[in-house]
Amino acid sequence: MKNKSVQTEIDACYLYRVLAANEKDEAVANVFRQMGEIEQSHAEAFARRENISTENLIQPSWRAKTMNLIGRLFGYDYVLGALMDTEKSLSNAIIKTKEKNKMALTGTETNHVKILWSIIDNDKELSGAQHAKFETKHRSVGGNAIRASVLGGNDGLVSNFSLVMGVAGATTGQQGVLLAGIAGLLAGALSMALGEWISVKSSQELYENQMAIEMDELETNPEGEERELALIYMAKGIPEEQARKMSSEIMKDKTHAHAVLVKEELGINADELQGSAIEAALYSFFLFTVGAIIPLAPFFFTNGYEAILLSVSFSAVGLFLIGAAITLFTGKNVWFSGFRQVLFGLVAAGITFGIGKLIGVAVS
After folding, report:
1. Of the four listed, 7, 140, 319, 329, which is most buried by Cβ atoms within 10 Å?
2. pTM of the predicted protein model
3. How many CB atoms lie within 10 A of CB 308?
4. DSSP string spanning 125-186?
5. Nearest C-alpha neighbor of 352 from the set 160, 172, 174, 176
6. Tens digit of pLDDT per residue, the chain (364 long)?
7. What is the rounded CA–CA span in Å between residue 291 and residue 298?
């Protein structure tokens, strides 16, 4: 059985090769191929350290194959986003571990994230337009979208499963359970959609306001903004003279200067403002609904304890699949994560069923 570190590198190598094979832009595909080669060298190094044979080393796990399937179905931007998010998480984990153990940071902790941009910067065949295209692809979709799908379905399933069991415990009437379940589904889905819309819209409005203020400052006090930009570069370790030259050159083009100041001073990525609040709301509504319909479905064609048992069975399967899907990001054991999710869901539903039973008895 392969060491976990070796398998992680193997999966990364496999996914970068998949991205390269499905990338139409040859220069960007070349970046992916180089990243695959780097990950393979990491895998071979780990394998030698653990005395694992390096022959036929590239054998991806089911997680990597599942990510490839997601790419085929929904587009390979999702794979790239998930892959880069994983590398960021690993880098952050290394940094936190070193800080906890009071170990010195060497700057190599984020190499897996930085190396991609280093390759892009050093690749003479990759133009500025292609660099921008690559960065947009990387940041637009990916791991967050897949995570949102899993968590949205989980919220709908757990909340409506608990609600349905609570009402089923209080009354064996099919109509009462259906009414409560449908109401819970709609209320939860609409709440999720509205919350997502407000979140996206408020963030966009906040950033747009900050960007407008930055443009006003740029027009009314360009000298001050130039000094400010130079100080930002100096704080990053760039020598003072070079920092002042860089800021002076940037300030010659107001539009470019504004974009740089927004990114460097405010930390705002303009590409993230292009997302649709309505699209995000509809996405959340749909995902919550998919999860919420699972425990409710049996009550459409049966009632009583038969419907309750079917609801529990359907929900348990759904919870297990959600727990298994989460391991795409955590790398944990599928059975452990799946059954843990089932346990938590059943405990929550069991509590509401018991409370419903007590209330039903008291009312009757």
Report:
1. 319
2. 0.59
3. 22
4. TS-HHHHHHHHHHHHHSSHHHHHHHHHHHHHHHHHHHHHHHHHHHH---HHHHHHHHHHHHH
5. 160
6. 456 667 777 888 888 888 888 888 787 788 788 878 877 887 777 777 767 666 656 678 888 888 888 888 877 777 777 777 666 666 766 677 777 777 766 655 565 566 555 555 555 555 555 555 555 554 444 445 566 677 788 889 999 999 999 888 887 667 888 999 999 999 998 988 898 888 778 877 777 777 777 677 777 777 777 777 787 777 767 788 888 888 888 887 777 777 777 776 666 665 555 667 787 788 888 889 999 999 999 999 888 888 889 999 999 999 998 888 877 766 677 888 889 989 998 998 889 988 888 876 554 4
7. 14
What type of residue sits at position 185? L
CA 63 from centroid of its chain's CA atoms: 15
CB of 150 closer than 8 Å to CB of 325: yes
Question: CATH number of the domain at 4-140, please?
Answer: 1.20.1260
Q: Is residue 159 within 8 Å of residue 188, measured between CB atoms? A: yes
Characterize 80-109 residue by residue with b for buried, 16 or more Cβ atoms within 10 angstroms of its Cβ, and e for exposed: bbbbbbbbeebbeebeeeeeeeeeeeeeeb
In angstroms, the CA 41 to CA 107 distance is 20
Is the CB of residue 225 less than 8 Å from the CB of residue 251?
yes
Burial class of residue 291 (count of CB atoms within 10 Å of its CB; 0-12, 13-18, 19+): buried
How far apart are the C-alpha atoms of 89 and 34, rounded to whole Å?
21
